[in-house]
Design a protein that fits this description.
Helices cover 11% and strands 30% of the residues. With 64 residues, it is mainly beta. The longest helix has 7 residues.
């Protein structure tokens, strides 16, 4: 199980990029933290999710 923003998902073996695409996140407007460390956008395709991973996906919102 992988915990994302407090909810558990069965995503072991999937890449971070795949999860983000299926979840319809705009990768230009997010930051992802995996197990306490920021994941660079250049590594989303290579980052394979594993049992026990904890992710926080934060979406940036503009405004003024």
């Amino acid at each position: 199980m992988v915990r994302i923003n407090g909810k558990e998902y069965e995503l072991s073996g999937e890449t971070l990029a795949c999860y983000l695409a299926v979840s319809e996140y705009d990768s230009r407007r997010i930051a992802v933290e995996r197990n306490g460390e920021i994941v660079p956008k250049s590594l989303y395709e290579q980052t394979v999710l594993k049992d026990g991973d904890s992710l926080e996906v934060v979406t940036f919102v503009g405004g003024g």
